[in-house]
Amino acid sequence: MVYKNHKTESSSCGTSASQQKTEGQDHLVRPKKLPNPVLESHNHRGLHRELLFSHRWGLLPKEKPELQRFLEQRRLEQHREREQALKPPSDLEQELRKRRQKLMEYEQEEVRRREDLEKMPEFVRMRKNLRHISTSGC
Question: Are 54 and 60 contacting, i.e. CB atoms less than 8 angstroms apart?
């Protein structure tokens, strides 16, 4: 058996094909890569270098970003609410709920009464007012 070196054969074929391609494309103008204005900016590079230096030496403030603080606070509040939902309400909380419910019912009744007065024709309202005035005036 005869083993041939495939690398030498393919490289010789490959160079002739690549040479043919470059010879045909020599008359074309090759486009240059567009510069990135952010990366070329001296201010941007200086700021980036300063941030890297501060990060390495631990000079950055220990405060967390505002969004992260807000999300953590929100998670804690939700956790507290879940814990309180699992606990049975105390007597004080039950009484407060009853009072709040009574106040809500009273407010709803007051709103219904106002709506009824607004829906009532004007002459009926005026007659009620006149009766009230005439009875209180005597």
Answer: yes
Q: What is the pLDDT of residues 77-101, one digit of tens each?
A: 999 999 988 888 889 989 999 999 9
Residue matched to tokens 């019912």: 105
What's the pTM value of the predicted model, to 2 decimals? 0.32
* Amino acid present at 122: E
Q: Which single residue is written with the structure tokens 């005035």? A: 133
CA–CA separation, 1 and 119 (whole Å): 109
DSSP of the chain, one letter per residue? -----HHHHHHHHHHHHHHHHHHHHTTSPPPPPPP-HHHH-HHHHHHHHHHHHHHHHT-S-SPPPHHHHHHHHHHHHHHHHHHHHHSPPPHHHHHHHHHHHHHHHHHHHHHHHHHHHHHS-HHHHHHHHHHHHHHHH-
